[in-house]
Amino acid sequence: MIWLVFALLSVVGLLFMGLPLRHRSSRTPVPADATDAVLMDQLDEVRRDLERGVISDTEATAAEQEIKRRILVQSRRSVLSDGKPATGGRLMVVLSAVFVPVFAFGYYSAMGSPEIPGVAFAERATERQEAAEIAELTDRLYVRLSSDPEGGPSEGWMLLGQTYSKMGRYADAADAYRVVAQRPKADSAVFSMLAEVLIYAEQGVVTPEADTAIDRAYELDPSNPGAAFFKAVSLEQKGDEARAHEMLVARLDDADRFFPWMESFVGEANRIGAKIGKAPISLADYAPKTSASGPTQEDIENAQDMSVEERQDFIRSMVERLATRLEDEPDDLDGWMRLGNAYSVLGDTAPAIAAFEHAEILLSEVPGDDPRRQAVQSALERLRP
Description:
By secondary structure, the protein is mostly helical. Among the domains are: 130-286, Serine Threonine Protein Phosphatase 5, Tetratricopeptide repeat; 297-383, Alpha Horseshoe (Serine Threonine Protein Phosphatase 5, Tetratricopeptide repeat), CATH 1.25.40.10. Helices cover 74% and strands 0% of the residues. One of its GO terms (cellular component) is plasma membrane. It comes from Yoonia ponticola.
């Protein structure tokens, strides 16, 4: 039924577009002849005025020349257009009238037909149901915490705040975090999370309340990445870009191994650094960082005076010490990566592969965007036959 309605509407539209074309034509001999007759009458009138002495010979000659020029121009126009319809504009209208409905029908039949099931909508049914269940559980948690005579446990309020934050309800998340922030045992993480949702709620603007929370978080724990990051954001908005950049880089330098937050720090430091002429930094300068013990400056200086054989033995002794230590600390991911690199430099392919394979197992517990995943994968592809 709906196709019949669409077809009728298309026919009506084509009629409205096509009917005017039937009456449209180019210039015909009739208006051209009529124009020529008027010009000839004007020429006769000039001659009569000359005979009566109304105009001089010079004026009559000039008028006759102008009228004859107009007759010549009109004659040329009549020859060019007589009997030849102006098909250019009409052709475009006809093509548009045919192409648009055909294209519309084809696109609608493929993408918008009522007979085609809403696949995308159906795929999101489970997601919508889960979102509704989370919202219901969140509301129940809020009621339970609010009705608790003792104010509700801090862990419950923190969970509520985190859930609200993931749902994009930053103002509600801030209310939940405020409850915990007012308690004596509130730590740096509480204040940094409060500052975060307050900033998000204001579209990235650090409000006075958020600034106070940032200062409190940094005061309680300067090593808290969240506190350092938002402190830098606050400093930049206050116009102190140099100090903000310095704070981000200093926190990166203090990290003893790779953390997921380091990527955000590098991006923010480069963004601020570009404004003040600082050279860009790279995540590769900080990740992966290793907690494995390496050669001291004294070891490096002593190695310069060794022969090739002595230097090789020195390197192997260091590798053996690292391998021995990893037997007692098998969960040291960076240590296994360093051991694999050391064996690879020495040309010991089999031990290098074994070390990287051990690191690959440990990588299953780190986030998917950890750059060490790509480093280990590339090493294994290079070493395996």
